[in-house]
Each structure stands twice: as C-alpha cells, then as structure tokens.
Design a protein that fits this description.
binds glycine, 4 domains, PRibGlycinamide_synth_C_sf, five-stranded parallel β-sheet, Phosphoribosylamine--glycine ligase, binds adenosine monophosphate, ATP binding, alpha+beta, Dna Ligase, domain 1, nucleotide-binding, PRibGlycinamide_synth_CS
C-alpha cells in the first residue's frame, strides 16, 4: 500500500513516520515534503505544491496510491478532497464544506450555536463602524478574529478597547485580505487551553489523547502567537470524566450538526478548548486537520496502526474498529525555531546533530528543513521538533531537552519552559 501525504511540516513528517511503522504501508510519498520526509526510509518527496490538485490527482492515479492524507488547512479549504474524490481517489480529510469549520470562524460559530456547543459568546460584523461600536459597548478584554484563514495571525486577544479597535481597523484595512472582511468579536475566556484531536468517518467520532500546545514565542507564555512551540500528551487537565463531557457536549453534537447539514466529514476534527475556572470545556476554535505540534506528541503514543484508523474513517467503518490502543508513558515535544520567528528570519543555515539526538531514542520531526547535497539546511520558521517518550513528564522532557542539546544551527531558538504546567524539575 502506498500513501500520499500532502504538506511539509513537522506534522507531515510525523504522519509519514507513523504510517510506515506497522509495515503495511510500503511507501509514503510526501508533497512537497521537507528534509525529514526526504531522508526517512521508504519515504520520498514529490515536488508538487499543496494547491496543485491536478498534479496530485495524476500522481495518485498513476502510482496507485491507496489514499491521500491532507495535512494543512489551506488545500482542504480550497477543495482538494472534493477534487480528488471526483476522480475516485480516497482522501483522509474533509471536503470544502466541512473545512469551513476552520476556514470561516463565523460559520463555525453559527454551527456551534445551532448545536448548543459551549463556546465564547460572539457577534459577527461586516463593517468597521458597527464592530467598533460593539467593542466600545462591551469593553475589554475582548477577542477580535478575522473570519477566514490568516495563517494563525488573525486573532487578537485585546486587553484594551484601543487594542481591539486597532485590530478591527487592521482587519477591515485589508491586513488579512479577504479573510478579514468579516470579523468575529468574542468574549474573552479564561482558563487552560487544551487540544483534542478527534478522528471521524462522518458518523462516529473518537478522540485521540488530549494534548497541550504552547502558542506563544516567549517563555512564561509571553510574546507573539506562533504555530506552536512545543506540546505534551496526554494532558492531565483532561480527566476521563472531562473527556466524556468533551465527547458528549462537543464532539458528538459537532458531527451530528455537520451530518444534518449534509456534510460528510471524514478526517480529523480538532477541538481547541478552554477549560474554564469553573471546570467547563468551551470551544475556542475548531480545526479541520491534525494540529502541529500536537501530532508530534500524540502519534508516538499511538499503538493502533494509523493507516487502520484512516482507512476506517475513509470507508465509514470507524464504529467497527476496536478501541484505540495507546502506549504507556507520556510524550514531550520541544520545537526549535529560527531566530526572529514568527516575524522575519533567515533560511539556509546548516543543521547538525540530528543523528546524535535520535541515538537516545528521541524522534526528530523536521519542519522547515531542506535536504541539499551539502547537507541539511534550515528552510522555515519552525525548523524541527524533538519528541521523546518518558515514564512521566519530568522524564519525557528531560529526554527531549537532552536530545535537543545535540542539535545545532545558527540562530536556533527554543523555549526552555515547555511543559511548565506538568514538570516538577526545570
Ligand atoms: P486561534 O488562532 O484561533 O488558534 O487563536 C489563537 C489563540 O487566541 C488561542 O489559542 C487562544 O489562546 C486565544 N483565543 C482565541 N479565542 C479566545 C477567546 N475567546 N478567549 C480567550 N482567548 C482566545
Ligand atoms: N498547534 C496549533 C495548530 O495546529 O493549530
């Protein structure tokens, strides 16, 4: 069986690695891939852009690919699944209608309201004056969100009315292009964030282990928002009782309302949640794909073959699959970024020490890297993440940081406090 993975992040490297683990998948092709997927045994890169649907379809047909896994939200929102399915190619990932759950925050909010899914109270605006009047009336703190996909930069948690007004002005001023011509303004929730990635075949929905991400660039959760600087799983914040509530109050109603709307959603539904001080789970956002770096801590703990789960989703037979099996232990991931990320950063720095880092049993999931004849070079903001499994969080993080200390590139930056919520040793 051959599988085609679309994307080029650490998430896609982890997906490819996991798909190859059981031996049933003989080959993974990653497009466009990165330095990690280029050098992973039985994996190769294909130089097609994630939006080149025709090229991807042709490759899948000619090479008899069993199914396509779509990593990032952009191609999903642009309809890659619809395009491939029309040509009878099996895809893990929702169609264009389903992907709206991430691609339009206003649409997702309306869906949540209709299904009585707990979330922050919100109002939607199509013009600046009305949005600003609303913010003045509500006061701060308040959250301003561009409706559409904005590469993780569309959300402002405003501590003052002035900051909220500036965010509104930026959105309507065109900072996010078409993605910002509608703005969602919502109540600012407090509590602890957790990511629950669930897999679904459109009828049955099952959560994977809960994970905690670290969105801010700086230690103590300060500074700009990023794609994610580290993660751990399973997040102790989500007890079995809390997971049951998430299943009953959020995941099941979400898949039921999607089905009611005629949307046949097969793939990952990622619930970004806030556990409020009162202990209630509320949805901050839904994503239509695996999280990055959450995937890099959830998949190493998964014992059930990933291809079995994906095929069950594609064939709408998830209910027939036995309960997912997990390895014991905890998994920690620390991301190393290029200095300057998430703003301006340099590319092309040689990376050393990956083999040494992996010799201790850690996994190095590459993201912004490129395999060149002269060696591995940096090629993006988030360069790589080191994941390690341990008996507890102290052990897992100790190993991840020890492995990371073997790696070097010019301008390498990482947070030293990933997992601060769960570590006793720092
Ligand atoms: P997003 O780009 O939607 O992932 O949002 C980025 C971050 O903004 C989230 O991870 C939260 O930390 C924060 N955020 C979004 N919505 C809210 C909200 N309603 N209340 C508090 N924080 C929020
Ligand atoms: N780590 C956050 C995300 O994947 O959206």
């Amino acid at each position: 069986m051959k599988v085609l993975v679309v994307g080029n992040g650490g998430r896609e490297h982890a997906l490819a690695w996991k798909l190859l683990e059981s031996g049933k998948v003989k080959q993974v092709i990653c497009t466009p891939g990165n330095g990690g997927t280029a050098t992973l045994p039985r994996c190769q890169n294909l130089a097609l852009n994630v939006k080149d649907f025709e090229g991807i379809a042709r490759f899948a047909l000619v090479n008899n690919v069993a199914f396509v896994v779509v990593g990032p939200e952009d191609p999903l929102a642009a309809g890659i699944t619809d395009f491939l399915q029309e040509q009878k190619i099996a895809v893990f990932g929702p169609d264009k209608l389903g992907a709206q759950i991430e691609a339009s925050k206003a649409w997702a909010k309306a869906l949540m309201l209709e299904a009585s899914i707990p979330t922050a109270k919100a109002a939607v605006f199509n013009n600046r004056e009305a949005a600003q009047a609303y913010v003045k009336a509500q006061g701060a703190p308040i959250v301003v969100k561009a409706d559409g996909l904005a590469a993780g930069k569309g959300v402002t948690v405003a501590d003052t009315v002035e900051a909220a007004e500036a965010a509104i002005a930026a959105a309507f001023g065109g900072q996010f292009g078409a993605a910002g011509k509608t703005v969602v303004i919502e109540e600012c929730l407090t509590g602890q964030e957790v990511s629950v990635l669930a897999v679904t075949d459109g009828i049955t929905i099952r959560p994977l282990l809960p994970a905690q991400d670290h969105k801010r660039i700086g230690e103590n959760d300060t500074g700009a928002n990023t794609g994610g600087m580290g993660a751990y799983a399973p997040a102790p914040l989500v007890s079995p009782a809390m997971m049951q509530r998430i299943q009953d109050e959020i995941l099941e109603p979400a898949i039921a309302i999607l089905r009611k709307k005629g949307i046949d959603y097969r793939g990952v539904l990622y619930a970004g949640l806030m556990i409020t001080p009162a202990g209630d789970p509320k949805v901050i956002e839904f994503n239509c794909r695996f999280g990055d770096p959450e995937t890099q801590v959830v998949l190493p703990l998964l014992h059930t073959p990933l291809e079995d789960i994906m095929l069950a989703c594609i064939k709408q037979r998830l209910a027939d699959l036995p309960e997912f099996e997990w390895k014991t232990g905890t998994c920690a991931c620390v991301v190393a970024a290029s200095e300057g990320y998430p703003d301006i950063y340099k590319k092309g720095a040689p990376i050393t020490g990956i083999e040494a880092a992996e010799s201790s049993g850690a996994f190095v999931f590459q993201a912004g890297t490129q395999a060149k004849p002269q060696g591995l070079l940096t090629d993006g903001g988030r360069v790589l993440g080191v994941s390690a499994i341990g008996e507890g969080f102290d052990h897992a993080f100790e190993q991840a940081y020890a492995a990371l200390s073997q790696i070097y590139f010019d301008g390498m930056y990482f947070r030293r406090d990933i997992g601060h919520q769960v570590r006793t040793i720092r």
